[in-house]
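Before relying on records like the one below, remember that each one covers exactly one chain. Contacts with other chains, cofactors or solvent are not represented anywhere in the record.
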Amino acid sequence: MSLADDLLTGKRFFDVGRYDAALICFERILAQAPNQYDAMRAMVITLNAMGRAADALEVCEKARRHHGKRPEYYHLAAQSLEQLGRIDEARRAFEEAIALAPAAVHHYYGLSRLVRFRPGDFYLDKLEMLAKNIYRLSDVEKIELHFALGKAYDDLGRVEEAFHHFAAGNLLRRAQIQYDEAMWLGLFQAMQDVFTPEAIAAFHGVGDPSDVPIFVIGMPRSGTTLVEQILASHPKVFGAGEPLYLHQFLGQGLLGADFPHSLAALKPADLRRFGGTYATRLKTHAPEAARIVDKLPTNFVLAGLIHLVLPRARILHVKRDPLDTCFSCFANLFSQQIDYSYDLGELGRYYRGYAVLMEHWHRVLPPGTILDVSYERLVADFETEARRIVAHVGLEWNPDCLDFYRTDRVVHTLSAAQVREPLYARAVGRAAPYQPFLEPLRNALREG
């Protein structure tokens, strides 16, 4: 296989979330051509996606030594530093990238997520200058510029201007993607149809006995990263971020080609094997940890399956005000495939489907299986709620959980910067200033 073939294959693996396989391809290229630019860049992006930010930063530094001061390397280094919690260094790296490429919008967008804009801000002036010639930009650049300007005006309390840019960025992004709303809402309903009380009872206790996994589920922007950070501050807990293992194993057909409809045809050994495969894979992150957190929010779809294949796993469901949650999604540009978030109507209908499914899980799963964690209560009475969280996962209290923002670990979600700060209440009531613009969202949340 040629170097070009390896690069293309690696990128294809990356696009479907098979980061380990992608990494092997890029390593094979660099074994033959140690300083090949595209492979080094792809390796950094892949390592960051895997949560191996320190390794990514090392490759970045090597690339910069060989290829010189390229703005892209500063940008990638900034992303690694952000994951590592070195926020000031990340900000300076983005600023260096901007200095080298002052017309490159994505550097400004990266910086915008790490700073709070103030009146007369130098970088806001630059963004506004870029906006004067927005017609010259690609659609990707326009999207990033709109989200960066939306963030800046939001920081400044210039609500109407902020919403204008959030709406424009979302509209452009929605035009780029194919979101199958009927498929997602149909899946939510299928889970309710298949995972009946009788089905749960039929497979009670047959799964793998591991008590290592902790699942933190909910909507994006609901506080799941904060809850993971609290737990990961406990000396017996490791935070694994957002692994895709459950979804990958289902995609590989480990529970049949027609899951969830295949559930009734499965044998207890099938569920036990699936749970054991997942637990074994998860433990590779931290073999000595008593508990490991998987905080992929979308696992809420699979809460019933999780209970069957891992009956001793702990599940925490983080809830936040629906309008605050949805608007926070709408005001952010996701790197993951959160395709329902770019239209207020679709976003509201997805949220409603999620809420109905969570009500179903509470009805059919044994009492105490899922602990609901209110983001607003967590902010208002932090220690009480943090103790409740730790107790639910079966561990003794540790005061390190109160100093979650001091915990040195990799975080690779949009909340990477926020969880490095002491707890704050400014996200409560997030949507309130934007009420005049949110009628489509409110209508969608009320439908049905």
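The mean pLDDT is 92.
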